[in-house]
């Protein structure tokens, strides 16, 4: 039990360290480019390249976490990261930075470990908050963005990078000693898990949402330090502090997003998130001064952080049996969301001389997500209504205003013997037993017209010809013009003493 209680703080601290490593290049870029000449395109690629492998590997790492456990994944990858960290510290060309940065992406992929492992230790109603706490590991990017320039001023950027070697060795030892050796494992083959989820539209909608929310977080993290220096003439340390503030807000608000997803309807929270991101993108598109630019960025930090927490509340809710692979796919899409925007912004700036189109694209993607989440919200309501009907023990039959059967539930089939395929489009007369006369039905419909419903006992006939007594209630469903659109009959078989 003690080992289990340690996993949340241990894995969160491990993620902090991993994210510290992930953004070494962007945090130190103002210093690196002073020693290694880089063009604008090369600079964009070097700062964005750690995101590539960090995104792609999130899928297999999520799967491997389910199969081998978080302890092994954090330990092995912490050791593997020693090589690219050291290689970057002795880099003297664009190619060196590119190769080192590519494999540095392993650290970003470790995000999939905790979001797959930690929900195993907590009930579903706490998954949003727990994953939100784990997501605080994002603060590692803020620590590097703030601390790395300060250390580079004192020791040089090469020695600063080498300090991270000690950090990774420490993380490897912590996980080796205190990681849970008995974490529950899932050994379903990767191909089989992919088959069960890739056609599910919810997977790709959640991936799009995280592509925007986490992608915005990563993109601004790697884009802001150099942009603030070049565009607003801030000094390197000031730019690092402001970027660290952005990261801190997005990171510490993430558990709040998870809590909001646990406490309220997650889709309603996401509606607010995407509306705010849409407006923020529009503000930034108008190329404002530093004050309004800061407001737009901080608003993005706030709502992207909330969105990150909410999305990973939804993943285990919809994909509890395939959490590892789905967490990996969604997290990978989020990482790729951080790779493309800096490149797109650089390309558009070189083409047009400003960033307006890029920020407007951000607002339009957010608007698209806003529309999709509204659709998902109402789909969820319809699915819940369907489940209520399907799991009700009473038989339910819905007809249109003309009396054609539109919908029945499984209990209807159990009682009458007619399947949904057999009964849809038929008239309820198919159930008539012949025991009630015309006057009975006239009184029934008169009661429905006058009183808005009818209830009583009626003899009907099953598919096999058996006559049975049922207790039945019939109610009309009207539209806003008080016109009857449907009739709903709810019944059960009465026992005859």
TrEMBL record:
Keywords: Membrane, Nitrate assimilation, Transmembrane, Transmembrane helix, Transport. GO terms for molecular function: nitrate transmembrane transporter activity. The chain crosses the membrane at residues 12-32, 38-61, 73-91, 97-116, 128-149, 161-178, 203-224, 239-257, 269-286, 292-312, 324-349, 355-378. Residues 6-381 form the Major facilitator superfamily (MFS) profile domain. Pfam families: MFS_1, PAS_9. InterPro entries: MFS (IPR011701), MFS_dom (IPR020846), MFS_trans_sf (IPR036259), NO3_transporter (IPR044772), PAS (IPR000014), PAS-like_dom_sf (IPR035965). It is found in: Cell membrane. It is a multi-pass membrane protein. Residues 381-427 form the PAS domain. GO terms for cellular component: plasma membrane. One of its GO terms (biological process) is nitrate assimilation. Its main location: membrane. PANTHER family: HIGH-AFFINITY NITRATE TRANSPORTER 2.3. NCBIfam families: sensory_box (TIGR00229). Belongs to the major facilitator superfamily. Nitrate/nitrite porter (TC 2.A.1.8) family. This is MFS transporter, NNP family, nitrate/nitrite transporter. It comes from Mesobacillus persicus.
């Amino acid at each position: 039990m003690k080992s289990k209680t340690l996993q949340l703080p241990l894995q969160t601290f491990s993620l902090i360290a991993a994210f510290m490593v992930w953004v070494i290049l962007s945090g130190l870029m103002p210093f690196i480019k002073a020693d290694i000449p880089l063009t604008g395109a090369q600079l964009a690629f070097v700062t964005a390249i750690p995101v590539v492998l960090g995104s792609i590997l999130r899928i297999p790492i999520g799967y491997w976490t389910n199969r081998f456990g978080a302890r092994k994944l954090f330990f092995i990858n912490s050791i593997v990261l020693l090589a690219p960290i050291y290689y970057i510290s002795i880099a003297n060309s664009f190619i060196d930075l590119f190769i080192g940065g590519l494999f540095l992406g392993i650290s970003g992929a470790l995000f999939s470990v905790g979001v797959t492992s930690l929900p195993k230790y907590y009930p579903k109603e706490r998954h949003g908050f727990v994953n939100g706490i784990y997501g605080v590991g994002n603060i590692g990017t803020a620590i590097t963005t703030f601390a790395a320039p300060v250390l580079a001023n004192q020791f040089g950027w090469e020695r600063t990078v080498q300090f991270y070697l000690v950090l990774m060795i420490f993380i490897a030892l912590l996980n080796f000693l205190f990681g849970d050796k008995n974490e529950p494992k899932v050994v379903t083959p990767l191909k089989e898990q992919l088959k069960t989820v890739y056609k599910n539209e919810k997977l790709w909608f959640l991936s799009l949402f995280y592509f925007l929310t986490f992608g915005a977080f990563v993109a601004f993290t790697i884009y802001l330090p150099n942009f603030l220096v070049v565009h607003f003439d801030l000094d390197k340390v000031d730019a690092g502090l402001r970027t660290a503030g952005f990261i801190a807000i997005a990171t510490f608000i993430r558990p709040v997003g998870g809590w909001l997803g646990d406490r309220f309807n997650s889709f309603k929270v996401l509606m607010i998130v995407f509306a705010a991101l849409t407006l923020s993108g529009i503000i930034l598109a108008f190329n404002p001064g530093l004050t309004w630019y800061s407001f737009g960025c901080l608003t993005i930090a706030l709502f992207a952080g909330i969105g990150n927490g909410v999305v990973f509340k939804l993943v285990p809710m919809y994909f509890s049996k395939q959490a590892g692979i789905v967490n990996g796919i969604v997290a990978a899409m989020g990482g790729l969301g951080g790779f493309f925007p800096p490149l797109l912004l650089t390309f558009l700036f070189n083409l047009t001389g400003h960033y307006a189109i890029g920020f407007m694209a951000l607002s339009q993607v957010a608007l698209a997500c806003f529309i999709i989440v509204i659709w998902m919200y109402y789909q969820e309501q319809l699915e819940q209504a369907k489940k209520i009907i399907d799991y009700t023990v009473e038989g339910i039959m819905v007809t249109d205003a003309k009396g054609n059967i539109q919908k029945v539930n499984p209990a209807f089939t159990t009682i009458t013997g007619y399947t949904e395929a057999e009964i849809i489009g038929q008239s309820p007369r198919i159930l008539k037993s012949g025991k009630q006369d015309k006057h009975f039905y006239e009184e029934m419909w008169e009661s429905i017209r006058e009183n808005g419903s009818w209830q009583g006992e009626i003899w009907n006939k099953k598919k096999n010809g058996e006559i049975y007594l049922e207790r039945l209630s019939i109610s009309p469903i009207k539209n806003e013009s008080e016109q009857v659109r449907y009739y709903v009959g709810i019944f059960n078989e009465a026992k005859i003493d």
